[in-house]
Amino acid sequence: MSRYKNLLNTFAMTFVAYCLASVIWVMWGYTLTFGPENLFMHGIGVGTLSGSIPTFVFALFQMKFAGITVSLVLGSIVDRMKSSAWIVFTILWITFVYCPIAHWVWGGGWMGKMGALDFAGGTVVHVNTGVAALVLALVGGRIGCGNEAMFPSSIALTGLGAALLWFGWFGFNAGSQLSADGVASSAFLVTDTSAAMGALAWMFAEWVVNKKPTILGMASGVVSGLVAGSLGFYSVARIKHKLGYDDSLDAFGVHGMCGIWGALATGLFANPQITAGARGLFFGNPKQLGIHIVSISATALFTAVATIVIVYITRMLNGGLRVEQEHEIEGLDNALHGERAFELQ
To answer: Which domains are seen in the chain, by residue range?
Structure first.
């Protein structure tokens, strides 16, 4: 979805984020999230188990969440952020934003003890990343945003990417049960159905409003459906143009808004027949909805404040966040990497 002149830079910054997350997780991220005794994976051996699976497998699975969460934040500021600033931001954000929130929910922290339900990242990943993305988007938009068309470099690659996400999401959601059982199969089924309904909802909405359903819209519907819902994101995607902030790839709409709805919906629809002890408002437990309102609000507030602080620290350490104006106009692929995504001559 990035512009053709910044396609490789978007790839590069995503790769860097994932690589940094991988190393940070092994060195101190896993420890901050799940236990102070495991710095540098100390004390974990090939025979160590977390439940019924090897701890190394559990740690790697959790690392994927850390890697994807910070990578999703990137979607709001592609085309304009310095690579060096992104490196500093990524290290600080994983350490001081992602790890604390993941600990609160999954690592024995106060949200988990309070009873907040987050099976596969609705709060830890999506609310968290969406709010951080909005903060970065508000720092400043791309040159020409709102005055010139900014077409995606390849709708075909966007469609392929959405299909790959659709398949990979089965691992995140069904895998979060850490077992091949009935709950995992339920998560698997619901994940696929949600993605399909998201694509269809977006397609029909575009058909009614614009008279033309688009592949870009269907791909967006798939991803927002995988998070939690589609029509709400469709509304945010339209509203952002009126409000004037430049969220390049709709990270706040897809992840923030859909994540908020998903967390609220869990407080409404949690079914004790699916997950033992989970009972939402519509199953006679209004307290669960209140718990989720608190967890959403706390996550959004903490993420917003912490991300603002990290932005200022990154700016101070790195001499600014944005690339040079001439580089932004020229395109970051050539200016920063000396490469082009496509040879069209």
So the answer is: 4-337 (1.10.3430.10)
